[in-house]
User: Which sequence fits this backbone?
């Protein structure tokens, strides 16, 4: 980790804790993460903070800012088309348009965004097997209707879709397939 | 790295430690060993958690008379203590959980063990170091090609992890300096550290590296390959998952140790439900996603790769 034999640009990658061949997407994510970490009172920092002076934390933040500023400029000199692909495009622009949201529509949207079921499960608390049943519309394997509504809302919200619209569509389809008299107290 | 013919390269050692008890080191080391074995590698998993041997339970093997203490007390060969498991290519050497007086294994004995381990005709040797930051544990940790720590995304576990890593790094530094007759001069500098504007071990290393003479080159060379693999266990949500990146950052920026976020394992309810069935159904039962996560971690450790920061949406 000696800074003697590396180029200035490599040094900036090192500050952002990245490989020198990192993509712009990684650079942006690393910057966001490190800036947040060293500006916060995160438990990850608090137990080691006795060893650190305020000056040092500020020093890190300054170096992180500089590293990002320089590397960002480098990338903006590249093909702008390439940068558009890597930069944060609002999800709405990438998502295929659906009129009615089915389980399959959710699945397609998720796949276009490159999101694994596990990620959604971690973020929403919905077990992966339920997410799978939602996507494949295995209604008989899902919990009661009320829960399904909530699950689908949360799932849709995570994909930046309108939770009410999606959940309403989905429940309509579920009601058609599953006769209403079946355990529909919720 | 292949050693199926019994010739060629020696076995690669992976040591799993981490300081705090209950983080899931044994669980993780058993999972990694199984993962390697299922890839077709010959693996021996050794329970060096003196005082807390559990590996045999994870594989549904009765706590046997043939344990690692036989190597120390009765001078039996390591090969004779190896026990097959239900997983092809994976064998274990049990720790001792049946004697009343715990084995007192000193450093010399551990080095003897290490030398014998290295000669086993396998591809990988995995060691469960158990908890604690005592010097003997750390010394074995530092002997591994792949030192691995298991942490929980939880403040007290993280605190203990830093302690373990700091102690390990300091110990490594001491041994490098001792080997080159530089220990005393480094000690003097450390004792006067405020004079040199040195606060952490990392500062000390930077200072030594910039000193004229051999110290800088030696340290650079000896420390450059050292990297700790971090595995985050019992993760329940995305926020906890991202702490792996944060912990790695603190290791690099504050402790001065190179670290890799090898991966995470979700809290696996299925496993805990099934653990009590292990004696009846001696299969090591985890959920499908744990399987995937472990495979990812194993591949990362083998390749020296790690989790990508932009793969998680914050």
Assistant:
């Amino acid at each position: 980790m000696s800074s003697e034999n590396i180029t200035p640009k490599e040094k900036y990658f090192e500050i952002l804790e990245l490989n020198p061949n990192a993509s712009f997407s990684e650079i942006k994510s690393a910057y966001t993460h490190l800036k947040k970490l060293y500006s916060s009172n995160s438990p990850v920092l608090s137990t080691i903070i006795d060893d650190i002076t305020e000056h040092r934390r500020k020093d890190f933040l300054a170096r992180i800012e500089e590293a990002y500023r320089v590397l960002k400029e480098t990338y903006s000199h590249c093909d702008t088309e390439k940068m558009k692909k890597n930069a944060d495009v609002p999800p709405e622009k990438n998502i295929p348009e659906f009129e009615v949201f089915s389980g399959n529509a959710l699945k397609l949207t998720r796949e276009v965004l490159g999101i694994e079921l596990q990620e959604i499960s971690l973020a929403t608390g919905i077990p992966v097997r339920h997410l799978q049943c939602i996507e494949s519309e295995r209604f008989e394997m899902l919990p009661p209707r009320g829960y399904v509504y909530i699950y689908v809302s949360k799932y849709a919200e995570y994909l930046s879709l309108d939770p009410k619209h999606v959940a309403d569509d989905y429940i309509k389809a579920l009601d058609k397939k599953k006769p209403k008299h079946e355990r529909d107290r919720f | 790295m292949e050693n199926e013919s019994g010739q060629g390269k020696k076995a690669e050692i992976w040591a799993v430690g981490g300081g705090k008890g209950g983080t899931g080191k044994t669980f993780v080391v058993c999972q990694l060993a199984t993962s390697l074995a299922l890839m077709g590698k010959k693996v021996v998993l050794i329970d060096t958690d003196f005082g807390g041997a559990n590996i045999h339970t994870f594989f549904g093997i009765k706590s046997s008379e043939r344990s690692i203490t036989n190597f120390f007390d009765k001078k039996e060969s390591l090969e004779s203590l190896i026990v097959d498991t239900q997983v092809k290519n994976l064998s274990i050497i049990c720790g001792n959980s049946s004697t009343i007086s715990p084995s007192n294994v000193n450093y010399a004995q551990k080095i003897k063990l290490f030398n014998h381990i290295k000669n086993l005709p396998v591809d990988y040797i995995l060691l469960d170091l158990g908890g604690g930051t005592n010097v003997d544990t750390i010394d074995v940790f530092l002997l591994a090609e792949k030192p691995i720590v298991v942490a929980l995304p939880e403040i007290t576990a993280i605190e203990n992890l830093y302690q373990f890593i700091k102690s390990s790094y300091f110990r490594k530094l001491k041994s490098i300096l001792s080997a080159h007759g530089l220990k005393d001069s480094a000690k003097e500098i450390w004792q006067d550290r405020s004079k040199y504007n040195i606060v952490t071990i990392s500062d000390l290393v930077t200072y030594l590296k910039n000193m004229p003479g051999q110290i800088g080159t030696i340290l650079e060379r000896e420390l450059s390959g050292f990297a700790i693999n971090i595995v985050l266990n019992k993760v329940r949500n995305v926020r906890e998952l991202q702490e792996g990146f944060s912990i790695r950052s603190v290791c690099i920026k504050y402790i001065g140790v190179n670290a890799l976020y090898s991966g995470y394992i979700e809290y696996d309810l299925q496993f805990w439900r099934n653990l009590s069935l292990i004696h009846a159904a001696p299969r090591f039962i985890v959920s499908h996603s744990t399987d995937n996560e472990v495979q990812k971690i194993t591949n990362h450790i083998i390749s020296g790769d790690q989790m990508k920061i932009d793969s998680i949406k914050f």
